[in-house]
Amino acid sequence: MNYLVVLNLGKGDWQHGLPTVIAQLWDEHSPNPMQFTGSLPAAPELDALYRRWQALYEDLYSHLGWRRSSVQSVAFEIDEEDVTHLSQAEFSQLCQDLQTAINRWLNAEAFRNIDRQLRTQLKPSDQIRLIIVADDARLLRLPWCLWSFLDDYPKAEIALSLPEYLRSMKVTATKPRRQVRILAILGNHEGIDVAKDQQVLQQLPGAELTFLVEPTASELNQQLWQPGWDVLFFAGHSSSQGKGHIQLNQTESLTVDQLKYGLRTAIAHGLKLAIFNSCDGLGLARDLADLNLPQVIVMREPVPDRVAQEFLKHFLMAFSGGKSLYTAVREAREKLQSLETDFPCATWLPVICQNPAEVPPTWQDWCVPRSPLLRWPTRQELQTVLFSSLVVTGLIAGARWLGWLQPVELWSFDRLMQSRPAEPPDSRLLAVMITDEDIQTEGEQMRRGSLSDRTLNRLLEKLEQHQPLAIGLDLYRDAPADVPELANRLKQTRHLFAVCKRPDVRGDPTGVLPPPEVPESRLGFSDFVRDPDGVVRRHLLVLPPNPSSRCTTSYALSVQLANHYLEVKGIQATVTQQQDLQFGTTVFRQLQRRTGGYQSLVADSGQVLLNYRAAPSPRNITQQATVAQVLRGQINPNAIKGQIVLIGIAARHSSGDYWTTPFGKGDTDRIPGVLIHAQMISQILSAVLDQRPLLWVWSVWIETLWIAGWAVIGGGLAWQFQRLEFLGFAGGIAVGILIGLCQVLLIQGGWIPLAPSAIALFMSSISVALLTASADKPKIHHE
């Protein structure tokens, strides 16, 4: 539990004793305190012992780099001969004597009631704030951290307070910000190194720093009047001899009274903590208490440069890491013990001066917590994120419009296609493959093209015995058949369809004539459309009439075969008002010039995206057999009866009819054209009969909004996670979610922008991180 103990020493001093000592104990669950009383006897020997210790402490280490004002004079004297003959061991003994005397005084019979009651109510595991209140400033200078009570309660820490205190008046309620605002004054640093203090401050997470390097009084006052400071920090020379004062530069020294109005304004606007990492700061803390500043951390005595630097480093590390103010001070103070070989009594120096009417803050109280559910950006931060996201989205949209991102968008589309869950082969199709062995069996004289007319006739005859619903002949036969029986079969078989090829200005300017025996109503073009990288990703359904072409049919072989199959099932093909092909209720909407990752499609042909059947390989689209297997009767008749049979070349060494798919670009990944036709037929039949989704895309505007959303997410992550490793981890999770969403939607038929969104997320996070780092860069004002 958390406890507050206020130990009020009342009126009195060491010479006359403290007749009325009151201890009040609050716990975090009750607004009403418990109260215990006692007294402390006179201890003039303790006063003398402390004075001797103080003088020897200063004189023994006066050669070190003190952070003490050079304008002060020592307030007490000691025989120089004593100093000359003082040894390290003797000083250590003096320190021990002082500690013993303090605990003997606090163990007096009159004080034991308070000590016993506190130990009865408190447990060693409790967090305890122990505030010593006294009217006599000399009592407050005593190193109360030597009290043995702290040894028994490792989570307790001492603070000092004057007997009168008020709650500070706030002009407006301070709202949590993303960063702690620190006004850091680096004063006159002659003979000391305040640059290390500056480095420690600059390493603070979530801090907005403004440095004043040896400022003038006017510059300091101007900054104090600026609202929103959480912490006031000073490093340099200071002293509490007479009035507490700090040296701003080599010529100017200021007291708290000379900064009263600026400090009062800063406190009213939310200043909660002052840290004077300089010598002899109790006088400064006393003057600041009159202004009701909630907390001040000072050094009670002159402090060596290295001790001040180490304390600051350990305190800020613990405090910004989430520990309470008191725990952080105790931890940092005790870590100074490692320096006490060179700097005795280093752990005695840091002390909190607390206004008991105020609750000590945590670092997280000053800024919005790191949890995304609790943190809200400021208006400026929100503007930064939105502006960066808008600029990034514009750049991405422009790059897409120019087609610069098309290669990476198609690459990411292929990766998603490959990652879909596997589907079973389409049992409505059978592919009869003409292999190298089948061609070699024909001999040189008897074959025309791939198969001789006699073998082709035997193959068709064999297939007809098992009553296929349709046969697609993916073979170029631009000359009359030599075998009359084959000629009659080609002419009279109403469910047999053949191919021709349209002219191609790049590769085949003349095209290929159809078989003369097959009427145009049973012809389909065999043309495929390849992307610039050679991959077939689109399904060409219809081509406009071309009177000069040797291939006059308007429909692809896949459309002709699928249409015949569906007509038998009672489903008719129509054309919509938008000139889209429709089977039953399923409409095959033509691609527009800008579709998905494509930015410059030729829109004068009827084509759709080809939704390949998901499988480890596109070869697994359907059942397959060789010509030899069919002729030998080595195939299940049920694989033919009522199905669509495709006949095409699969001879790798005898044919150039091999095509690259999204499943890979290697030679072993390419598949014969007959299987591309099978994929296209399966797409039509599955969409019409099985409601398997066709691939669809959003409009350009919706895609742009989607990309903008991921740009905002990237900017938001950079605002949320300032540390690079956290940002990288969060960005990785965001990209994983993006990929997952794109994959799920692709399974449902949706091709949505993946690569542009990932790029937008990355660019936006980088830009916001850079802008934030630039805004967070400490402001340094030189004299």
First-to-last CA distance: 48 Å
Tell me the overall shape. Answer: rod-shaped
Tally of extended strands?
28
Return the average pLDDT rounded to an integer.
88
Q: What Rg is obtained from the alpha carbons, in whole angstroms?
A: 44 Å
Q: How many H/I helices?
A: 24
User: The biggest beta sheet, please?
Assistant: 12 strands, mixed
Q: Low-confidence parts, pLDDT < 50 over ≥5 residues?
A: 70-85, 369-374
Q: Strand-residue fraction?
A: 15-25%
Strand order of the largest sheet: 3-2-1-4-5-14-13-12-8-6-7-28
Percent in helix: 25-40%
Oligomer: single chain
Q: Could you say which structural class the secondary elements and strand pairing correspond to?
A: alpha/beta
Walk me through what this model shows.
The chain has 783 residues and is an alpha/beta fold. A hairpin with a 5-residue loop joins strand 20 and strand 21. Helix 14 packs antiparallel against helix 24. The strands form 6 sheets. A 12-stranded mixed beta sheet has the order 3-2-1-4-5-14-13-12-8-6-7-28, with helices on both faces. A 6-stranded parallel beta sheet has the order 18-17-16-25-15-24. A 3-stranded antiparallel beta sheet has the order 9-10-11, with no helix packed on it. It is built from 24 helices and 28 strands. The relative contact order is 0.09.
